[in-house]
Amino acid sequence: NPVNLDPRMAKLAGGVHRLDGQLMVVLDVDRVLELETKVQMAA
User: Fold this and answer.
1) In degrees rounded to 5, what are phi and psi of residue 17?
2) Does pLDDT of 29 surpass 90?
3) Is residue 2 part of a domain?
4) 14-25, pLDDT tens digit by residue?
5) Burial class (CB in 10 A: 0-12, 13-18, 19+), 25
6) Total tally of structural domains belonging to the chain
């Protein structure tokens, strides 16, 4: 992951790929769902 990627986003990113003039952040779905579960449990 790029060093300037927000640390909160870096925790959810499975990788970053360079496209023509853009960056594509690939989310780690398991981490996203784990976070959602923690948020629901806290509510």
Assistant:
1) -120, 140
2) yes
3) no
4) 999 999 999 999
5) middle
6) 1
Query: Residue 11: in which H helix or E strand, if any?
Result: helix 7-12
For the record, the structure tokens of 10 come out as: 């870096």
Neighbours of 20 (CB within 10 A): 4
pTM of the model: 0.64
Beta-ladder partners of 34 = none
The whole-angstrom distance between residue 11's C-alpha and the CA centroid of its chain comes to 5
Domain span including residue 29: 7-42
Q: Which of 21, 24, 23, 25 is nearest to 10 (CA)?
A: 25
Burial class for 38, CB neighbours closer than 10 Å (0-12, 13-18, 19+): exposed
